TrEMBL record:
<comment type="similarity">
    <text>Belongs to the shikimate kinase family.</text>
</comment>
<dbReference type="GO" id="GO:0006950">
    <property type="term" value="P:response to stress"/>
</dbReference>
<dbReference type="InterPro" id="IPR027417">
    <property type="entry name" value="P-loop_NTPase"/>
</dbReference>
<dbReference type="Pfam" id="PF04969">
    <property type="entry name" value="CS"/>
</dbReference>
<protein>
    <recommendedName>
        <fullName>CS domain-containing protein</fullName>
    </recommendedName>
</protein>
<dbReference type="GO" id="GO:0005829">
    <property type="term" value="C:cytosol"/>
</dbReference>
<dbReference type="InterPro" id="IPR007052">
    <property type="entry name" value="CS_dom"/>
</dbReference>
<feature type="domain" description="CS">
    <location>
        <begin position="73"/>
        <end position="167"/>
    </location>
</feature>
<dbReference type="Pfam" id="PF01202">
    <property type="entry name" value="SKI"/>
</dbReference>
<dbReference type="InterPro" id="IPR031322">
    <property type="entry name" value="Shikimate/glucono_kinase"/>
</dbReference>
<dbReference type="InterPro" id="IPR008978">
    <property type="entry name" value="HSP20-like_chaperone"/>
</dbReference>
Amino acid sequence: MAGSVGAAAEVKLCFYFSIQSSINRPISSLSFPPFSRSRLSLGAYTKPRLARIPSKRRQYLPSVLCKCISTAAPNTNYEFSDGASDVELRLPLGNQEIPRPRDVCVDAAGTSLRVTVRRSGSVVTLIETDQLFDRVKPSDTIWFIDEDELVINLKKHDPKLKWPDIIESWESLSSAAVQLLRGTSVFIVGDSTEVNRRVARELAVGLGYVDLHALGFIHLFRRYTPLDTQELLESVSKQDVDSWIADEGVDSVAEAESSVLESLSSHARAVVSTLGGKHGAAARTTNWRHLHAGFTVWVSETEAMDQDTAKEEAIRHVQDRSTGYTNADVVVKLQGWDPDHAKSVAQASLSALKRLILADKELPGKKSLYIRLGCRGDWPDIKPPGWDPSNNTEVAL
């Protein structure tokens, strides 16, 4: 497939973690715009299998130590393909003179890739990213020149994972997430109903929801459907949530939303936005029985300026159990809120979920089992069939 990479749009800083399986270890962080690194790069390479390429066209690049100095990466066109255990990236070298091997620097490490060529005494960056779709094995990197293209072969850390693209982007995450989630619903929780709704809507669009009513068609095409507990509550009660709270109090609204979540727990392929604040069921630790049926993302605003501070804040929340949101599978922390950045927060949510599932690929199946057994509140340590949550006893089979 063909693609391009350029400078990311300026958005607020986001941090995301798994807060259940590894709260002491951040899965990753996402920040925009991407930073540019300057450091010594050592490429380790072996001779590739190139039977399909005539020998006169091959230029093998030996191990090269080069100093890479450049500014932000320019827009770069490329061709990408995914193999069984590796991925191939083809970068056009243009109509200029083909560089010598010693003038090419390929620096691959973890989830980062930087490729530069030296021309006329200056360094040109062909591609630079610290957001490869997944980790690679740097020592197995192979690169060579095929006529007017630089071909880079990267060995995947997880050979079973299909890469939609070389870079983790909104498009590649959306494509992969549908496969990784395997139909499991996603619940967006947090203090702000508006934030939850906007992020859930963007997430559903990314996962393939198309509202054909808006295009003049009668039916809806669904892969993942956006659902809003506030809209469902107001539709049934025939009154808005604010007046409901004024009439009956926050406890009544939270209890009603808990009933709605129970009905939604058996739904597949849904992105559910929940009520924020004290009147929301998710804020209460006792109302998570049915939320565990799906993957939960806690969207939380923070004043933290760096990943470590955001991580410490998340750990404190988990330790003091001050809110039900700490039961979530992942947390996305963001500095302030701007509706224009809802898509970026949705992208961070997908990235966090991707890392969570890749760390334990049995999670979607485990969620499905939890639903089939009746959402008994025994997540994540699912008890055998016949277990009675009221007295914590098991029935012999």
